[in-house]
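From the shared-data thread, chain only:
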Amino acid sequence: MKGPESQSKPERAPIYWMHEAIMYLGFDRLGLARPEKAIYRLIEKGILNPRKIAGRFAFDKKELELLAANGDKKRGKGRPRKIFPA
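Structure, as tokens:
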């Protein structure tokens, strides 16, 4: 008879919940009042594509690594938007 170590479980994809993604990206160290708002903005821009698991957002580790390495690359070339009306 074989032991439990011989029965291999399928490997789970590494996922991060919202609070783990905030810590992974370093938003908790920026002094933001609501760091989850920054995550929601990245989702709205289409930079992050979370999954919903049990009503909570779950993020793939590879996607977070890509965001941490490259930053927000969705904005194209051209003049930046005006911050203050002239």
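The beta strands are 15-17, 51-53, 56-60.
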